[in-house]
Amino acid sequence: MGSFILFALIILFASFLQTSTGFGFSIMATPFLLLLFEPREAIQLNLILSFVISCVLIRKIKKDMDVTLVKRLIVGSAAGLPIGIVIFLVADINKLKIGVSVIVLVLTLLLILQFRISQTKVRDLVTGGLSGVLTTSIGMPGPPVLLYFSSIHTSKEKLRATTLAFYLFIYPASLIVQLLFAGTSKGIWVSSAVALPVVLAGLFLGQLLFARINQQMFRIFLYGLLIFTGIYLLLDSWN
Fold first, then answer.
1. Please, are residues 187 and 41 in contact by the beta-carbon 8 Å criterion?
2. Is 124's pLDDT higher than 90?
3. Which of 66, 136, 192, 217 is packed most tightly, with the most Cβ within 10 A?
4. Nearest 5°: phi and psi at 11?
5. Where are the transmembrane segments (predicted)?
6. Given this model, what pLDDT does residue 193 score?
7. Which of left, alpha, beta for 22 (phi over 0: left; psi -120 to 50: alpha)?
């Protein structure tokens, strides 16, 4: 019962973040789901539920998305997906989490120090590629996209809509790759079905917050979440 309550709380808060920010589910859920499930189960749960969230939300916010950027991210991620599954199958999961945590913390520090870059086609593609690698390897496409969008000073509306549109491709594509090369289990799909009512509750609460948060608060929240994720992954990999 204790594990179920923890699972429900993780999914509720992660769904809340996904709706209010456009990226929070994978960043919040994956590290904590690894406490309850094996890596394959945690990653596939994240992929399934994140895809459901994107499907529910995209109709309401599609007017804010950058279609050209979404297409470039998809093209780039197509190259990253197979690399990510190879890493998942052969790499030590703790070393992988250490690498990701260091990257997230360093890049977040650069953003806090007002590091900025200009948007280019090549950088769009590279960001998509990195996102693809992280999705099939650890189920977290958010950090590269979030860090890139923040560095080019993207509005919170455009960030949320564009990332959700990108996730409509990256999550099912990554899940298919996972199923083909890593397999799945009945428990993963049962847990996903049980989590759906909790996800819907999180979506409702997240929508209420998004309408009330300004751009400055939004960025502070993003940086705090990234720092928390990076530190958590780093500490968890040493246990």
1. yes
2. yes
3. 136
4. -65, -40
5. 73-90, 96-113, 164-182, 188-210, 217-235
6. 93
7. left
